[in-house]
TrEMBL record, chains A, B:
Its cofactor is pyridoxal 5'-phosphate. Gene3D superfamilies: 3.40.50.1100. It comes from Amycolatopsis minnesotensis. It comes from the Bacteria. This is Threonine/serine dehydratase. Pfam families: PALP.
Amino acid sequence: MNLVTIEEIRAAAGRIGAHALRTPLLPQPWATGSPLWLKAESLQQIGAFKIRGAFNAIASLDEPARTRGVVAYSSGNHAQAVAFAAKQFGIPAVIVVPDVTPRMKVEATAAHGAEVVEVPMAERESRAYEIAGERGLTLVPPFDHRDVIAGQGTIGLEIAEDLPEVEVVLIPVSGGGLASGISAAVKALKPSVRVFLAEPELAADTAEGLRTGARADWAPDRRARTIADGLRSQPSELTFAHLRAHVDGIVTVSEDEIREAVRTIAHRSRLIAEPSGAVSTAAYLFHPDELPQGKTVAVLSGGNVDPRQLADLLAL
Amino acid sequence: MNLVTIEEIRAAAGRIGAHALRTPLLPQPWATGSPLWLKAESLQQIGAFKIRGAFNAIASLDEPARTRGVVAYSSGNHAQAVAFAAKQFGIPAVIVVPDVTPRMKVEATAAHGAEVVEVPMAERESRAYEIAGERGLTLVPPFDHRDVIAGQGTIGLEIAEDLPEVEVVLIPVSGGGLASGISAAVKALKPSVRVFLAEPELAADTAEGLRTGARADWAPDRRARTIADGLRSQPSELTFAHLRAHVDGIVTVSEDEIREAVRTIAHRSRLIAEPSGAVSTAAYLFHPDELPQGKTVAVLSGGNVDPRQLADLLAL
């Protein structure tokens, strides 16, 4: 399969420019063991890395298609990313969300000027395609698209630039867009870097897939057990091919380890991580024996956590 | 009085180099009203801006004095800053703390390799001077020193570089080292910028002093009422002269406003702020009528908050 190239990722960086934040790579002097840096994508304007891929995908459309607008289905960070990016281009965006989506998330998406369409959970994907067809909009998928992967890959460019001596990169994995992009960038620029994924035990389809060499299919109910609600997707053929090509290993973490990592990141790193964003730090904290030693970057992919859940996570 | 110059601040930036983090200036798209950026000093390695002044003060010592080592009295961020900076120079540091200091803070300071001396609260300053005399150490004061002020001023350089179109800068004030340094830098580089201070109502000696034109002296017990435990000092002659020369106004905030600002920063900006660090955002959120409109930078000075206090602040 034709994998995303470093040239595509560099082109994405050029398109994205200052429309996404160049997030800081933050040294963590409290870390014992391998020296640790956090790549804090939680500090993006929408609180997650998804803005990079969404912006690159929209920027890559030809002018007439872009002007007509875009549609996406997501209740999470991808929804806000597409809404936020569309607003920067001044184009219409329709976001299809399950009708069980918390008010707060619906409002955050609408606040970026997007039209939010609420449908029963099972219909969200089909409804999005329907709307795309009816209105001539382009569907921006959450991860299964080269432009989206290339956009997320710009994180890898920044890591390699900001810490040229990096030895290990730890990335949360779900649909695999983030991990595909970063690993493609890092391996192209610095093949000696070891790329490891972090995944919840309760949604460990990628770990199983990489072990057997073929994508594992876990039922949505089974994946939905993890608190890491951004990590309940599974790789596509395209992203799985990237992971097979570029990834050196994968570590699974327990729910308690994820919770403890959220607390450590708050108390020691002074950052809010959503559970999905904390799995890479959980791998670092609780599974050092499964990881190579050396200068380590953990990608903190997002910080969008409901105030009530945050209060629960940080309660003593 | 001879105020700290932009040349001294530039020299400080040269000395500090990469030993303190160039903290990110983070856009806050959720902000209504004036566009808002947070200068997140909470992301410094020690969780607060104090590393800048401490490092510059130690770097400015002559070689023999520096080699003998330094002493400081503080139970808060200055203690960790001096310990952390001394470690980078490989020199001895003694930190004198009140014997009521929480274990966690004592351990954090000791973890940087400093010798921690616990004494009764009333004796900490005198004991620090005694130790300095006995052991030939140099005392690094928390704010009343040009090199400390110049070090904190490097924040102003970074703001002016990263957001050349900045119009308003909001700074927490206590002893005034931070506000003196930043205002000196910003006013030298961009005289049109309006510099405003933010102070707790319950420790509003600086507001009173700037109103009357002479330093106000509030009893320590009176200042100790605020939850913002890093804002219980008051300006020295040196820092007060800077504030009189450079500051355009001051806003006082209530305890409830400080608490609400900590919550907003956690939920919307995904950052942990200590109450002292949140007062500038509290001024932005709750006192817009007292502030000029325009592109606003609020300095988030620190993020060191006890886990129990954080849990209480974020409880719903």
